[in-house]
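Tutorial handout. Part one gives the primary structure; part two gives the three-dimensional structure as tokens.
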Amino acid sequence: MQRNNEERDGSAGGQIVRLAGSISAFSPAEWNMLAGTNRDLPGYNPFVSHAFLSALEESGAASGRTGWAGAHIRLEAADGTLIGAIPCYRKTHSQGEYVFDHGWADAFERAGGAYYPKLQASIPFTPATGPRLLVAQTEPAETTRRYLAATLKAACDQLETSSAHVTFATEPDTEALREAGFLHRTDQQFHFHNDGFAGYDDFLATLASRKRKALKKERREALAAGITIDRLTGSDITEAAWDDFFAFYMDTGGRKWGRPYLNRRFFSLIGERMADDILLVMARRNGRYVAGAINFIGTDTLFGRNWGCIEDHPFLHFEVCYHQAIDFAIERGLRVVEAGAQGEHKLARGYRPVTTHSAHYVRHPGLRKAIADYLVRERREIANANAYYEEHAPFRKGEPPEGG
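Part two.
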């Protein structure tokens, strides 16, 4: 496996590993036969689709210029058939990942090491759990995952990068990576779980009475300034709607992060290629849109991503991002709403704590040992925090249902 765009590396059993500098090295048809990437099959995750990844690269949002140089791992059978892959990038910074290793980089570089470049097996700018060790539907999943995990480790060694990081991984991927010698890291998010609710009021009935009243009041006040909500998906998402949403994204993202990661062309590309997988929740006042949030639709999960606004209204952020997502998930029969990274405020709105997983291979033995020691403590802290939040969730505890 060499540094150039695509080089073969013969391996046992006639399998071939190639390192691809662009997702365009995979055809949409072959990529979308990998687990989790085909929208017509169960377990579809829109972020690992060819449409999403190619939009990131073609728009320039994820490119060598922005510090996300493609280093995608392609595993082939002897006849060239794709049997596995890893979406992977050679990175020169730690921005846009949402699993923070800045402290590791600072410590290593103060000690005289070079932390960058590193390998990052992830979906750029997307803190959503999904498959990272992608396996063809025809292959034995567990065996191929193990091979891919070992291949990523070997790529890190051969490219002489400091480390390889697999973030927001599924549990099967995490297990394969741990077996390959990766360090296990956990973090916390808040997700809504749809327990077969018939409607939003059905969900509200599971909350303590004080919390029910608070959320009803919050939703009324969010729309009190004459605001109405539009939900756009598929062909309803026009270029004019993207113009409005991008203005919100740039305004809020610029104030929050300084430099938003995504550009206007990216939104046009996903609108062309995967509009049926997108839900735009847009807030209108006085005949124009003033705020919005973008969500992506998987087989059984609604993934909340970016929010923005050009007018500030009390509770509007909660309505557009969280309450409307719950409404949509219940109507569509989606099992989960993932509302992005962090956010303890989501707890009061019916979102529950969950543990997310990542895996890290660090080449330098001293740095690896220091990180391993730290992760033992961090995993314990995450577990304690999740237990605390679950205990203080807003759900009824022995209280009769509303009206009972």
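Part three, for discussion. The chain has eleven helices and 16 strands. The longest helix spans residues 365-391.
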